[in-house]
Design brief:
Helix content is 30%, strand content 43%. It has 145 residues and is α+β, with helices and mostly antiparallel strands. The chain has a single domain, classed as Nucleoside Triphosphate Pyrophosphohydrolase. Strands 1, 2, 3, 4, 5, 6 and 7 form a seven-stranded mixed beta sheet that branches. The N and C termini lie far apart (43 Å).
């Protein structure tokens, strides 16, 4: 079975910082992550990522700026094997306040922060997520330098 997922590198154009989530994993470890979630029903990928960003951190005004990448992750939960087909977008916002909602907290999100590129690279441990951040940073640097 393949689950369609979306992920976002969110850049704040006012602060010139990236969004990172502090999240408790299923194994109860605290990790820093990018926003990621499942596509629901017949939702478009763009609608799904905008919904996830709003649900998880309260950002209602953002622009889906660019599709960065697509990757496939094989997963095993219990005895079940499946894959996640993840589409990653660069979102740009000028909305500064972040609000982690009750539903997001129930999914393990402890807090959300705007951090500079170097700090995000240090915080993110997932190779995929670090690569997505690097791609977004390189794109923004080339476009706005």
């Amino acid at each position: 079975m393949i689950r369609r997922c979306v992920q976002a590198v969110v850049y704040n154009s006012i602060l010139e910082k990236f969004l990172v989530l502090k999240k408790r994993s299923f194994s109860n470890k605290v990790k820093y992550r990018l926003i990621k979630g499942r596509v629901q029903g017949y939702e478009s990928l763009e609608d799904a990522i905008m919904r996830e960003v709003k649900e998880e951190v309260g950002i209602s005004e953002a622009t889906v700026f660019k599709k960065i990448w697509n990757y496939l992750v094989p997963l095993k939960i219990g005895k079940d094997l499946y894959s996640e087909d993840v589409t990653v977008f660069l979102l740009i916002t000028s909305q500064v306040p972040l609000r982690v909602g009750k539903d997001a907290m129930e999914e393990g999100i402890l807090n959300a922060y705007w951090e500079d590129y170097e700090k995000c690279l240090k915080l993110l441990k997932s190779g995929y997520e670090r690569l997505m951040l690097e791609k977004a940073y390189k794109f923004l640097k080339e476009k706005y330098s």
